[in-house]
């Protein structure tokens, strides 16, 4: 007899920019992502939109939650992280924290070959950049980290790229990143498949320095 395993549902939140992004999927037949341009109204509408977004499902339908952990807007990042941690705690679910830069890289990963460097750049304050460098692994189900999320001056960033002999153009993040909530969820799902089940208390935001 063939054993039918029920699908795994995950919920992804992305609040680190001016655009709220929510995504849910069972990674087989159903994937749904929606964005809202809320900017400073995030705290007023997040819970309302989140409750409406998951319907007709209930919270008990989900096996894990994923959240973009930054870098990005300090206030928006904090709101999303607190919400995700609270949900994971109350529902007793694993919580995955995914870099905003990694999610943006994964959003564009189909344009890159295996082991090809993908470097992402985000504007910070005081003339600095957030930067990270990844490459798609051979299984094409994850990103290997060449340079983890960091913040530096433009000249130091250029030296880093030159030292790695990278001459291609960076992916520069836009002001709205909510559309990459689906990538946050996908990267979390690959970790889920590896057997990882992080406790909500382990997931911390990466603030760095605020973009806004």
CATH class category of the largest domain: Alpha Beta
* CATH architecture level-2 label of the largest domain: 2-Layer Sandwich
Classify the beta-strand content into a percent band: 25-35%
Radius of gyration: 17 Å
User: Total number of helical segments?
Assistant: 5
Based on CA inertia axes, which overall geometry fits? Answer: globular
The termini sit apart by 57 Å
Largest sheet, spatial ordering of strands:
3-2-1-4-5
Largest beta-sheet details? 5 strands, mixed
What low-confidence regions span 5 or more consecutive residues with pLDDT below 50? Answer: none
Classify the helix fraction into a percent range.
25-40%
Helix/strand/pairing category = alpha/beta
List the helices and strands and how they pair.
Elements: E1 10-14, E2 19-25, E3 31-37, H1 42-54, E4 64-68, H2 74-91, E5 95-98, H3 100-107, E6 117-123, E7 129-136, E8 143-152, H4 154-163, E9 171-172, H5 181-193
Parallel strand pairs: 1-4, 4-5, 6-9
Antiparallel strand pairs: 1-2, 2-3, 6-7, 7-8
Helix pairs in contact: 1-2, 3-5
Summarize the structure in words.
This protein has 212 residues and is of the alpha/beta class. The chain has two domains: 10-100 and 176-202, ATPase, nucleotide binding domain (Nucleotidyltransferase, domain 5), CATH 3.30.420.40; 101-172, 2-Layer Sandwich (Nucleotidyltransferase, domain 5). It contains five helices and nine strands; from the N terminus they run βββαβαβαβββαβα. The chain has helices at 42-54, 74-91, 100-107, 154-163, 181-193; strands spanning 10-14, 19-25, 31-37, 64-68, 95-98, 117-123, 129-136, 143-152, 171-172. Strands 3-2-1-4-5 form a five-stranded mixed β-sheet, sandwiched between helices. A four-stranded mixed β-sheet has the order 8-7-6-9. β7 (129-136) and β8 form a beta hairpin. α3 packs across α5. The longest helix has 18 residues, at 74-91. It is globular. The N and C termini lie far apart (57 Å). The mean pLDDT is 90.
């Amino acid at each position: 007899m063939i054993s039918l395993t029920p699908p795994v549902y995950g919920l992804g939140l992305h609040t680190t920019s001016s655009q709220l992004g929510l995504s849910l999927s069972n990674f087989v037949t159903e994937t749904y992502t929606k964005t809202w341009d809320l900017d400073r109204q995030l705290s007023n509408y997040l819970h309302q939109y989140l409750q409406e977004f998951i319907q007709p499902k209930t919270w008990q339908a989900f096996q894990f939650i994923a959240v973009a952990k930054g870098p990005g807007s300090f206030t928006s990042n904090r709101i999303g992280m607190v919400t995700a941690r609270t949900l994971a705690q109350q529902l007793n679910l694993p919580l995955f924290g995914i870099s905003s830069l990694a999610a943006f890289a994964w959003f564009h990963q189909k344009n890159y070959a295996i082991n090809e460097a993908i470097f992402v750049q985000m504007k910070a304050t005081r003339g600095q950049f957030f930067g990270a460098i990844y490459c798609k692994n051979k299984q094409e189900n994850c990103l290997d980290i060449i340079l983890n999320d960091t913040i530096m001056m433009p000249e130091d960033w250029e030296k880093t790229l030159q030292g790695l002999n990278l001459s291609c153009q960076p992916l520069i993040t836009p002001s709205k990143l909510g559309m990459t909530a689906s990538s946050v969820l996908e990267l979390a799902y690959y970790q889920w498949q590896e057997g990882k089940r992080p406790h909500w208390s382990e997931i911390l935001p990466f603030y760095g320095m605020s973009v806004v």
